[in-house]
UniProtKB/TrEMBL annotation:
<dbReference type="InterPro" id="IPR006145">
    <property type="entry name" value="PsdUridine_synth_RsuA/RluA"/>
</dbReference>
<dbReference type="InterPro" id="IPR050343">
    <property type="entry name" value="RsuA_PseudoU_synthase"/>
</dbReference>
<dbReference type="GO" id="GO:0140098">
    <property type="term" value="F:catalytic activity, acting on RNA"/>
</dbReference>
<dbReference type="GO" id="GO:0003723">
    <property type="term" value="F:RNA binding"/>
</dbReference>
<feature type="domain" description="Pseudouridine synthase RsuA/RluA-like">
    <location>
        <begin position="3"/>
        <end position="154"/>
    </location>
</feature>
<dbReference type="InterPro" id="IPR020094">
    <property type="entry name" value="TruA/RsuA/RluB/E/F_N"/>
</dbReference>
<dbReference type="GO" id="GO:0009982">
    <property type="term" value="F:pseudouridine synthase activity"/>
</dbReference>
<dbReference type="InterPro" id="IPR020103">
    <property type="entry name" value="PsdUridine_synth_cat_dom_sf"/>
</dbReference>
<dbReference type="GO" id="GO:0001522">
    <property type="term" value="P:pseudouridine synthesis"/>
</dbReference>
<dbReference type="InterPro" id="IPR042092">
    <property type="entry name" value="PsdUridine_s_RsuA/RluB/E/F_cat"/>
</dbReference>
<dbReference type="InterPro" id="IPR018496">
    <property type="entry name" value="PsdUridine_synth_RsuA/RluB_CS"/>
</dbReference>
<dbReference type="Pfam" id="PF00849">
    <property type="entry name" value="PseudoU_synth_2"/>
</dbReference>
<dbReference type="InterPro" id="IPR000748">
    <property type="entry name" value="PsdUridine_synth_RsuA/RluB/E/F"/>
</dbReference>
<protein>
    <recommendedName>
        <fullName>Pseudouridine synthase</fullName>
        <ecNumber>5.4.99.-</ecNumber>
    </recommendedName>
</protein>
<dbReference type="GO" id="GO:0006364">
    <property type="term" value="P:rRNA processing"/>
</dbReference>
<keyword id="KW-0413">Isomerase</keyword>
<comment type="similarity">
    <text>Belongs to the pseudouridine synthase RsuA family.</text>
</comment>
Length: 188
């Protein structure tokens, strides 16, 4: 029988259980007593936070990571994002990936008119003295390395905070940073 978990990955953690390089890093296994063989489905980089699905079922990992499943992110960006920038995000933008230029697939994007109700981040971002910030929702079906961050930067609005809030039908909901809950099955 397989085990499945929803986790709010906090800022500053790697989306993995083993890290063999010399530097000390915070790993997912420090957050909960997960069964042996548990793996993250997809990844969130160390500076990103939010919904991470964990499973002991490798086949389920392939299903969730497919381009059929949407992944929605809330990005706090530097500056007041424009309608033009949002339209560029929706149409696909050119980013660097593995040393080459790559044009992202069309996606869903819209400006959030209010600051989303998210837990405070452990590390302070910056304050308004450094200029205004705004929030945008970006929903993609692909997941290149640091893709959403590269996308917002490509349209002139670098990401300051990135939170994954949805994978398919599964939402972050009321989970708090570091909290994990076991679920019966993964329905995306």
């Amino acid at each position: 029988m397989h085990h499945h978990f929803l986790l709010y990955k906090p800022f500053g953690y790697l989306s993995q259980f083993i890290y063999n390089l010399k530097r000390n890093k915070k790993l997912l296994g420090e957050l909960h007593d997960f069964p042996e063989g548990t793996m993250a489905i997809g990844r969130l980089d160390e500076d990103s936070e939010g919904l991470l699905i964990l499973t002991t079922d490798g086949w389920m990992s392939e299903v969730v990571r497919s381009k059929k499943v949407e992944k929605e992110y809330y990005a706090q960006v530097d500056g007041l994002i424009t309608d033009e920038a949002v339209k560029q995000l929706e149409n696909g933008v050119e980013i660097g990936f593995k040393g080459k230029k790559y044009t992202t697939l069309p996606c869903k994007a819209f400006r959030l008119n209010e600051v989303p109700n998210l837990p405070e981040r452990g590390k302070k971002i910056r304050d308004e003295r450094h200029g205004p910030t705004s929030w945008v929702s970006i929903t993609v079906t692909e997941g290149k390395f640091r893709q959403v961050r590269k996308m917002t930067s490509a349209v002139g609005f670098p990401t300051l905070r990135l939170v994954r809030v949805r994978v398919g039908k599964i939402v972050l909901g009321e989970l708090q940073p570091g909290q994990a809950i076991e679920i019966d099955s993964i329905e995306v």
